[in-house]
């Protein structure tokens, strides 16, 4: 496994005085992380992936590793075409859930989902299906060989029917994306990995050891809210890289030595 890291823009959602998108990118770049884009800014309906927004995305994310969370407003095939073309420009993964692909049951696998997955394959865009119902994920994966998986550690810790290790065992061979987050097993809190009383150390180690058996290129995304971004990223980094010894720790960039998080 080869792994690189991004931070989801969810980390900035809780700020009373939000940074501009350019400031968010500069802050993450200074820490050595890429960025996982959510399709909307909190409280706004305009999609980041609309064609008119591409010049700003290009300028702000220059030199960064990028992944994209699919729009979740029941996108049409036309809207899917636009965000796939956007992802191709950035060489970005798209992380989608069953709903955004129009999948609610077995009968939906030959409709919008089939067209979108085929379109992504034709454009050489990695489409990663985010963790949901494990039986349905496996069924969709069997139907579409080009589809990859995003394993969400928070979701895997919540399922009362299938355990964390079963999600890892069943999805790991085709995992290209990780949502690294933690919770107490009751609700999807999206707190930094390493929560006391959250996902066990045994399960974190099992995840890394299992993924290491496969020759996959993986993007690990810190998906967290709603504390101070600098604190959450520091806590997650200390747990993943200092305590668990995950590989390829992001390095602070000398050219951004003076960049700090300032929400004013």
List its salient traits.
single chain; 264 residues; alpha/beta; TIM Barrel; 8-stranded parallel barrel; 9 helices; 8 strands
Describe this structure in words.
The structure is a single chain. Helix 3 packs parallel to helix 4 and helix 7 (164-171) packs parallel to helix 8 (201-211). The protein has a single domain (2-254), classed as Divalent-metal-dependent TIM barrel enzymes (TIM Barrel, Alpha-Beta Barrel), CATH 3.20.20. The protein is globular. It is an alpha/beta fold. The protein has an 8-stranded parallel β-barrel, surrounded by 4 helices. It has 9 helices and 8 strands. 34% of the residues lie in helices and 15% in strands.
Tally the helices: what do you get? Answer: 9
Model regions low in confidence, pLDDT < 50 over at least 5 residues: none
Q: Tell me the distance between the termini.
A: 40 Å
Strands, count:
8
The percent range for helix content is 25-40%
Could you give me the name of the CATH homologous superfamily?
Divalent-metal-dependent TIM barrel enzymes
How confident is the prediction overall: mean pLDDT? 92
CATH class category name:
Alpha Beta
Content of β-strand:
15-25%
Topology record:
Layout: E1 2-8, H1 21-30, E2 34-37, H2 54-60, E3 66-69, H3 77-90, E4 93-96, H4 112-122, E5 127-130, H5 134-143, E6 148-152, H6 153-156, H7 164-171, E7 175-180, H8 201-211, E8 217-222, H9 229-243
Helix pairs in contact: 3-4, 7-8
């Amino acid at each position: 496994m080869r792994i690189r890291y991004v931070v989801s823009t969810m980390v900035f959602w809780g700020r009373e005085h939000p940074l501009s998108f350019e400031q968010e990118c500069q802050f993450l770049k200074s820490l050595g992380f890429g960025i996982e884009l959510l399709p909307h800014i909190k409280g706004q309906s305009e999609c980041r992936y609309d064609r008119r927004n591409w010049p700003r995305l290009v300028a702000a994310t220059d030199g960064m590793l990028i992944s994209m969370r699919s729009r979740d407003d029941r996108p049409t095939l036309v809207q899917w075409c636009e965000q796939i073309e956007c992802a191709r420009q950035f060489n970005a993964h798209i992380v989608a859930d069953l709903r955004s692909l129009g999948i609610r049951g077995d009968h939906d696998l030959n409709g919008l989902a089939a067209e979108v997955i085929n379109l992504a394959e034709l454009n050489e865009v990695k489409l990663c299906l985010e963790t949901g119902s494990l039986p349905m994920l496996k069924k969709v994966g069997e139907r579409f060989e080009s589809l990859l998986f995003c394993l969400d550690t928070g979701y895997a810790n919540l399922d009362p029917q299938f355990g964390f290790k079963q999600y890892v065992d069943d999805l790991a061979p085709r995992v290209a994306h990780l949502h690294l987050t933690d919770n107490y097993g009751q609700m999807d809190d999206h707190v930094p990995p390493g929560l006391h009383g959250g996902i066990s150390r045994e399960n974190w180690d099992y995840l890394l050891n299992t993924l290491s058996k496969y020759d996959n290129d993986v993007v690990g995304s810190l998906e967290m809210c709603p504390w101070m971004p600098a604190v959450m990223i520091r806590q997650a980094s200390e747990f993943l890289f200092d305590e668990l010894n995950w590989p390829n720790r992001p390095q602070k960039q000398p050219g951004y030595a003076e960049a700090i998080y300032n929400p004013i």
